[in-house]
Amino acid sequence: MGLDQYGYVKVSEEADVPSEMTFYWRKHARLQAWAEALFVAKTGQGAEALNCAELVLTVADIAGLRALVTDGALPKSNGGFFYGHQFQDEQVEAYAAQDLAFCDWAEVQIASGETVVYSCWW
Questions:
Q1: Of the candidates 17, 35, 46, 112, which lies 20 to 30 Å from 88 by C-alpha distance?
Q2: Residue 93 burial (CB < 10 Å; 0-12/13-18/19+)?
Q3: What range defines the domain where residue 37 resides?
Q4: Which residues contact residue 46 at a Cβ distance below 8 angstroms, ignoring those fewer than 6 apart?
Q5: Residue 55 domain-assigned?
Q6: Backbone angles phi, psi at 52, to 5 degrees
Q7: pLDDT value at position 107?
Q8: The pLDDT value given to residue 15
Q9: Minimal CA–CA distance to 68: which of 101, 112, 31?
Q10: Is residue 2 part of a domain?
């Protein structure tokens, strides 16, 4: 039990092909804190509404994420035990390369006209 996070290209609802989960994180609490703040800012809903929902990411969102990852400034999480808050500093370091790879990948996908999504489940 805990926080599972995904990054993928959203496939059209009309297509019979499911979305493929291209990136996966487990208990990356600071990435979740970033996504929750972005979700609240974009939707006006509470952070808890992001659970099992889709957050569509723009080029500006990805640029902001890249800057935070590069600067080691992803926001602290208060998500609790199931988010892995007790080892969030270690996860930032462990996932840094993957976070940047996600940013690189997402920028290419968006430039190609795809819809890039962040989703999570806890």
A1: 46
A2: exposed
A3: 26-121
A4: 40
A5: yes
A6: 65, 15
A7: 98
A8: 64
A9: 31
A10: no
